[in-house]
Structure formats: C-alpha cells, structure tokens
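Hi L.,

You mentioned the student needs an example of a multi-chain input paired with its predicted structure. This one should do, with 398 residues in total across all chains.
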Amino acid sequence: MRFKSAALLLVLLFALPAAAQDMANINFYANLGDQAVATVGDAVKLFALSMGQKPRDFNAARQFLIKEGVFPDKPYAESDTLRRRTAAFIAARYLKLGDSIMYSIFKNERYAVVACGANGIMPADKSEWDALSGAELMELVARVAERAEAGK
Amino acid sequence: MKTIYTMLFASLALVFAISTANAAVLVVSTRGEAAYRDGAAWKPLAKGQTIKEGTMVMTGVNSQAVLNIDDNLLTIKPLTTIKVLKNSLTKSSSDNAIGLKNGSVNARVKRIGTLKTRFNIVTPVATSSVRGTEQNTSHGPAFGTRIQVPVGLVNASNDSGVNRNVGGRSSFSLRPGNQRPDPLLGDLRNGAITQLNPANITGDEQAGLETFGDQLVDNFDDALGFYNKNVGGAASVKVDLIWPNP
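Structure written out for the whole complex:
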C-alpha cells in the first residue's frame, strides 16, 4: 500500500510541472493576444515554441533561432518593439521563401517584408517599420505554421 | 478507508452528473495545448469533457481541439480563441453560435431531418451561417475575416449590409478597415492573371532597377529606358496552316 502511494505521488510530482508548463504557455498566448504592441522577446518565444522548442529564456530561444538561420544576428533586446521587418525575416527564413529577386540577393529584413507580402504571409501594403500587435504576431505564426505544414 | 473511497467516488459521480445534465458541447479530442477558461483562470481541456455556453476555448502552437456541438463538429486550429456564444437544442431546433476572436476553425454542420438547424460563426466583423455544409473561417487583425466553403453553401453577412453566398471556388474576404469584402472570385482571379509592369518586367525587377538601376546598367542614364528601347521592333513569324482533310 505504501509502495503504491509513493509511486502515485512520484507520478503526480512529475506530471504537475508539465501541466504547469502548458498552462504557462496558454497564459502567454492569452496575454499576447491582448497586447497592443508585441516585443522581440514575444516573437522569439512564439517562433521557438512553434518549432517544437521549450526555451528556458529569451537568450536560449534567440540562440536556437540564430543557429537555425532564421533570426538576424543583431543585438536585439527582449523588450525591443517588434517591427514588421524583423517578424518577416524570421517568417521568410523559416519558410525558405526565395521567389523575390531582391530578397534572394540581399536576404535582409527589408526585402523579407516584400517576400512575405508576395507570398500572402503578410499584407503587401504595410510598412516594414510598423510595430506589430500581439494578435498580429499570433496570426503571422499561425499562417507560417500552416504554410510549413502544407509544404511538407 | 473503504468508506472514504466510497464517499469520494459518490461525490465525483454527483459532480460529473450535474456538469453533464444540460451540456451539449463535448470535447472529442485535443492535441498539444488546449485550454478553457474557468472564471479568471485557464485550465487544460480534456477529451470527453463537456463545456457550457459562454465558455472560452484556446489552443496553442501546433495544437488543436475538436468539439462536438449538437452532433456538429468544430475543429479549433492552432493559436485560436473561440467562445461558445449560444448552444441550445430543442425537439424542433438546434441553435448554435461560436464567437471567433482570432485564429481559424473548421465547422462541419449536418442537416438532420426536419430539425431546424442554425450554426453561426461570428467574428468581430462578419457572421457566417452554416447549414448542411463545411466551412473554414479565420479571423485576424492583419487579414480580417476569411471564409472558404469546401462543401455546400454559406451565407456571410455583417451590420454594414454585406450579404454574400459563398461556395465552390469562391471565398469571402473582408479586410480590416474595409466596409465591403473583396470580390468573391478574387483568389481565383489573382491566381490566374499575371501582373505585368511596363517594359515586360516583373515587380521585383522594376523595384530593383529603380533602386540600383544606375549601378546595374552602365552608360545608361535611364535604366528603365534601356528596357523600353528593346521592347519594340519588327519580327518575322512563319506560320504553317494545316487544314483538316474533308
């Protein structure tokens, strides 16, 4: 009886952090959806999660994305405002978009916006310097994930 | 000890019986992170669970949840937040409304005999009414509301007087800030017609020439003019006409 109780307790101890982690992510999504302005930290975390990672912090997620070649190797801070150009760069590199001549030559954030617009990932008529809201970031990541899934 | 277990089991059975007495929204399956809002807190959504009218449901990245709403299936896709606005079933009618805050859903609504069925998907800018059909609806701040109907016909409307029937290869797209939706066959048209620029160059080439033209093409003051000069001219074409034998 004691052995069974101890085993049950161990199972619960292992299961609780996993459940808490999931709810932490859900709370992150819920808060992000209501944010008027998203940060680079939000984008890095959301893209890392969508790529199957469970990053422990901003730097870990950022390093993972840089290693995967989908994040600009620039000194962005976690609290920096997320601009369309940065989000477009991550999306374009992740989806390996290459049908824009300018983007295929320069592969920079400016032309990533054009590539994303041409591919229907982002609206084509918006400025690269626009600040993205949390809901816009979520919509972008959902579209990118859907496109990546369809391309498999 | 046995008495405690019996009482615990009886309490759980009672709680379960109370929670399922009037509910018609059943969680068929979940994948990844799926949660429902209970008061101020989000709690994990589980297969077999029932949820009440007014409940919000959210999914995370690479996640989905499938709900059975009066025998109609609603698939909640990744990064989506919905609310069960209405869930009512009587002997003569089934009346359901789902609020889509952001994300996308797929709804498969059955036509059941003489039962009057109403299944609405409501976004902040439009409402789609599904009867005996399947539809994909998405809503977000960048692209607004989009409705595609793989099977059947759906009516899309809003408070600004928009009223469209969507089906087949047409799709409904109401972008943020617009009062009127895009043409229903807009997707088809955009996929079929190539956009042309002057001098037969693509948009990318034109942008490139406008930005770097003088660096790319030496000895020409007007880089686009270089292309224009090479567009016109005479050419001979040999044509063989072959008439069918009588």
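You could point out the following to them. Chain B has two domains: 2-182, 187-228. Residues 187-228 of chain B form one domain.

Best wishes,
N.
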